[in-house]
Amino acid sequence: xxxxxxxxxxxxxxxxxxPLVLGGVTIPCPWGLDGHSDADAxxxxxxxxxxxxxxxxxxxxxxxDTDPRWKGADSAQLLRQVLDDPRLNGWQLGNLDSTVIxxxxxxxxxxxxxxxxIADIFNCPVEKISLKAKTNERQDAIGQGLAxxxxxxxxxxxxx
Length: 160
Ligand code: MG
What we know:
Blueprint: E1 2-16, E2 20-22, E3 25-27, E4 31-33, H1 41-53, H2 59-62, H3 75-83, E5 92-101, H4 111-122, E6 129-134, H5 140-143, E7 147-158
Parallel strand pairs: 5-6
Antiparallel strand pairs: 1-4, 1-7, 2-3, 5-7
Helix pairs in contact: 1-3
Magnesium ion is lined by residues 10, 12, 35, 41, 44.
């Protein structure tokens, strides 16, 4: 078995009048995330982690925010497009760990749904997907509710 590890990070500004989408799940919230696509910071971090594992660049070069094709794009579709790339043939997810940092809302009630949504994209058991949530202790932009950030790390594996 061959293993490759990848890491991803993303941050989006919190703005009114946008849905809050994390891991492909729309979460009830009075504000959402600003961005060219659906601004799903968690899926963006995960996509960058997958690309990083195989040294295939980053989400910004795959899906430039200057390209009108990706305006309002469903980030789950973007990740699926990466996973369907011929260069990922034979690779499967070993496991994925992720962290969302935000003051609000509390993510505990949605964690399983988000993990299942991510597992559906990878077509893998939910047990391979970990999601953790933290606050920023009211410090800096995230702590003041101005931004939300996500980290992800993946282990990709392939038979020899
Ligand atoms: Mg992003």
